[in-house]
Amino acid sequence: MATLPRPSRSVRATAALAPLMLVLAACGAGDSDPADYPEESVSIIVPFSAGGPTDTVTRLIAEPMSEALGQQVLVENVEGAGGTVAGAEAASADPDGYTVLMHHIGMSTAPTLYEDLAYDPLTDFKTVGLVTEVPMTIIARSDFEPETMEELTTYLQENADTVNLANAGVGAASQLCGVLLQDALGVELNEVPYDGTGPAMTELVGGQVDLMCDQTTNTTNQINAGEVKAYAVTTPERIDALPDVPTAVESGLDLEVSVWHGLYVPAETPDEIVATLTEALQAALTDQNVIDEMAKLGTAPVPEDQATPEAHTAKLEDQIELWRDLLSAGG
Ligand code: ASP
What we know:
The protein is α/β, with parallel strands linked by helices and 331 residues long. It is globular. It is 41% helix and 18% strand.
């Protein structure tokens, strides 16, 4: 499976095919029938670096989606500005089903966090379906002094100005969780932004930063290998993949958050193509390997009735409103 970033479809088309496209457009021969979709490989844009949780989930479903579509599904990482660079690129892509965006909860926080957001999540995209909802974990470099969530609370309250808190950029889930954590403890830590959890995790394991709150899809293996220290999961119940890690609430911290993911295409994409993608997504989410691998990483595919445009749009609308209220109230 190809992993390298490549020029966007429109750039490549403009550079190499411009004369031919003019001729085809003139004869109307360039319009392909949505019923024939897909006739070539499909790219899923991931808005964060390779090696992070969003990337991991996308690569897990890409292969079974390829099988369902009968075409290769490629993964492209388009990093920057908490996922909004990728959002803008995907919103302006050709609405032909060959550019799909995988995004997470950041799609619902960006309209509040970014005044000049280049796209409207509700009107510039069509939803394909939800993918998974992932717990988060509060973790630290393995030699960070506090051993428990209670000790961490005291330590942060006494040493806030010396602690570096990694995140994947403004609007990233990790930033959001970090804000909730600081809020709950009444502290202000030094936030260190990266272009995704991949590089943030490398630096945390290397000891260059102290603390992070991120999805289990990219923290479970490091926690179980002892490469990082885990204090809490952010779900109401403990999770099977990390049975020894207490919930934040159990440790007296009022913090619950999980990170939902979904697939999007540009708003003008024909419904027939969206339906083909939804079917491929549903096939991927019932693939036994996907179910097993997600379970090892502390999550699960959404039920089939959630992997639909209707359920996804409803979730997006709700979440935009929820985070607008919460983030505005928090200043
Ligand atoms: N987990 C990251 C976030 O904080 C993004 C990623 O790399 O998937 O949003």
